[in-house]
Design a protein that fits this description.
- By secondary structure, this protein is mainly α.
- The protein has two domains: 54 residues, no CATH class; 38 residues.
- The chain has four helices and no strands.
Length: 93
């Protein structure tokens, strides 16, 4: 299970949804997670079956992918910085 923002949010939401009587919200979250898992697993199936076409790797694309992956993991473990940024932006409006 990847430690990303989506997973962390679901881990906080689902256990507390029954205490606050937000069962409908939890059901919607579970259903959308199942739909997402279906599409993610289709990609894995395509890779295993060898149906993907070869893609040339470009250095700038590799750098962008690595930077966004690192940012996602770092923000998952340090969400306070992201929340502070969101508060600062909200004060502008």
């Amino acid at each position: 299970m990847p430690p990303t923002l989506g997973l962390i949010g679901k881990l906080y939401l689902f256990p507390h949804s029954d205490r606050r009587r937000f069962i409908g919200l939890a059901v919607i979250g579970v259903l959308t997670s199942l739909i997402s898992a279906y599409y993610y697993l289709r990609v894995c199936d395509d890779v295993d079956a060898g149906r993907r076409t070869a893609v040339e790797s470009e250095p700038w694309l590799d750098l962008t992918t690595a930077a966004t992956a690192i940012a996602t993991v770092v923000l998952s473990f340090l969400p306070a910085a992201l929340f502070a940024l969101a508060r600062a932006v909200l004060k502008l409006f």
